[in-house]
Amino acid sequence: WCLFIKEHWSTFIVEEDFKFIASNGLNAVRIPVGWWIASDPTPPWPYVGGSLHSLDSAFSWAQKYGLKIIIDLHAAPGSQNGFQHSSTRDGSQEWGKSDENIQQTVDVISFLTARYAKSPSLYAVELLNEPLSPGVTLEILNKYYKAGYDVVRKHSNTAYVVMSNILGPSEHKELFPLANGFTRSVIDVHYYNIFDDSFENMTAQQNIDFIYNNRSSDLNFITTSYGPLTFVGEWVSDWRVKNATKEDFQRFGKAQIDVFGRATFGWAYWAFKNANLHWSLEWMINNGYIKL
């Protein structure tokens, strides 16, 4: 596995990709990292060392091509959501259940911010990706976000601090009073028309209408004049529509860019490269499915 992962790091995303991103009018990249990056090059088992070198390379390439970087803590110690992408094999969700666990996460944020604070490419630090309730409570999250914000500010007065919307029964609005007390703060929401069963029988046009009506309303709701900026940190031009035409996909992508482009901090596509072609922004651009 060690050799496999190291080969992936050295070949999957390379300097030419950053050149492509910049030449297509995009101005930033959101890079997910795991908490063990802070103990690189000898992270605890079963993690593999080398991810910090890859992040260093990304900062070098970003500076060369005039891009900004959002560092996204995608996997916190113990897992903040029980999903595989937060580094859990069995669905367990242990993050935030102790002060030591929260402090360990704050230390990771401190390490990353300190390392890149002087880079002109550091644009933002996302404190935690997709915390899931009820395993993560608003009380725990507010405590962590306050500590995370303070430690980012210890190293940087200019980096934006991004706080991900909590998933589950508790909705994002409860986070706003906390975020309103922060300068250069951002609320991150993720909009997909694919995971919820309510999209199962929607036509292409109904999906497009949902973007212009429902998603637009959701975004307006969380956008306030004096509050945190808004960021659609993940979206994809894919859906559950069967036998959709290329024109259908083009209209769907345009609708999302139209609406998510109103977010005051912008948007990020998930992902730049993916084996599923419609999830690969590079493929979507090269094949005329998305026009920026």
What does the model show?
It is a single chain. By secondary structure, the protein is an alpha/beta fold. Helix content is 39%, strand content 13%. It has helices at residues 2-11, 15-23, 51-64, 99-116, 138-155, 176-179, 204-222, 246-260, 281-286, and strands at residues 28-34, 68-75, 122-126, 160-164, 185-190, 229-234, 266-267. The chain has a seven-stranded parallel β-sheet with strand order 1-2-3-4-5-6-7, with helices on one face. Helix 7 packs parallel to helix 8. The longest helix has 19 residues, at 204-222. The model has no long low-confidence stretch (mean pLDDT 93).
Features of the shown structure:
single chain, 292 residues, alpha/beta, 7-stranded parallel sheet, 9 helices, 7 strands, globular
Topology overview:
Blueprint: H1 2-11, H2 15-23, E1 28-34, H3 51-64, E2 68-75, H4 99-116, E3 122-126, H5 138-155, E4 160-164, H6 176-179, E5 185-190, H7 204-222, E6 229-234, H8 246-260, E7 266-267, H9 281-286
Parallel strand pairs: 1-2, 2-3, 3-4, 4-5, 5-6, 6-7
Helix pairs in contact: 4-5, 7-8
Write a concise synopsis of the structure shown.
The chain is α/β, with parallel strands linked by helices. It has helices spanning 2-11, 15-23, 51-64, 99-116, 138-155, 176-179, 204-222, 246-260, 281-286, and strands at residues 28-34, 68-75, 122-126, 160-164, 185-190, 229-234, 266-267.
